[in-house]
Amino acid sequence: MVYESFLETIKQSLKERLGSEYTLSIQPITKNNGLSLDGICIGRTGEKAAPTIYLNQFYNCHMEGVPLDEIINDILLLYQTNKLPDEVHLNDLTSPDHIKSRVIYRLINESANQAQLSQIPHISYPALDLCLVFSIYVHEAQDNLLTALILNSHLKTWNLSFGELQEAAKLNTPRLFPARIRSLSEVIKDIAIKSSQEEICEDDLLDFFDTEPLSPPMYVLSNHTGISGAACMFYEDILKDFAACTDSDLIILPSSIHEVLIIPNSKNVSIEELAETVFAINQEEVPVEDRLSNHIYFYSRSTDQLSVAFTSSVSIGTKNP
Question: What's this model's pTM, rounded to 2 decimal places?
Answer without folding.
Answer: 0.84
